[in-house]
Each structure stands twice: as structure tokens, then as C-alpha cells.
Specification:
The chain is of the alpha+beta class. It has 4 helices and 5 strands. The protein has one domain: Aminopeptidase (3-Layer(aba) Sandwich), CATH 3.40.630. The protein has a 5-stranded mixed sheet with strand order 1-2-3-4-5, with helices on both faces. The N and C termini lie far apart (about 40 Å).
Amino acid sequence: MDTSRDITIETTATPTDEVRALIRELDDILAAAYPPEQRHGLTIDAIFQPNIRFFVARIAAVAVGCGGVALFADFAEVKRMYVRPTHRGRGVADAVLVRLEGEARAAGLGVLRLETGKRQPEALKFYSRVGFRPCAAFGA
């Protein structure tokens, strides 16, 4: 079932209950796969800073995913991207990433990076499919 045309991507400037729920779900998944010292995701408060744009993906007005992009001097970085398992395979991640790429381009940044773990095969497969390639460690 293709629902890609029914997906809306909305900017959110505050940590709403929906955003908190999505980030909590993501954190639960990561906590099951990695020990605390290997988890480096931004806290909910750190997401809503001036250099970060954050978005919620909706299908039929229901929040089904999210993602942000941090804008730095010479690159942008995908942050806290997540799609609920019940809505994967419907184009939600693609729609969120297109929005994040657009934000990076609008800021004049031609490099978009991300960090994901080896224990996230679905994420690795997605990012590879859309053109990301492994790189050396970057940033702090």
C-alpha cells in the first residue's frame, strides 16, 4: 500500500507530547540494542536548539515518525530520525529525509552526515539505499 502522497511533514519548534512519545520509542529501541555508553542521541531539550530543525511525519493526522537536521558551519547532520515500525515501508522515512535534505540545501550546506549503529540493520539498509556511504568518525 503506497501512502507516500498521504504523508505530511510538519515543522515543530517545541517538544510536544507526540514528539516526546516518538523519541521515547526510539530511545527504547536503542536501549535494547546498545549499552548506555554507546548511545549518543540528543536529549529532547537538546533537539530544540537554534541550529536544529525538527519535523514530525503524519499520516491521516497521526504522528508516525520524526527527524531533525543540525546545521553546522560546513555540514549538516541527521538527528533522531525514527519511523514507527507499524508505518515502515510506506515512504515515511523517504519523506522525512527529503525534508531534511532540503533544509540543509536551503542553509547552503552540501554535505549531510549521520551516525547510526551496526545493530540497526533496517536503518543501515535504508541509508545505503538513499545514497549514504560509510565514513570516518566526525564531529565531537
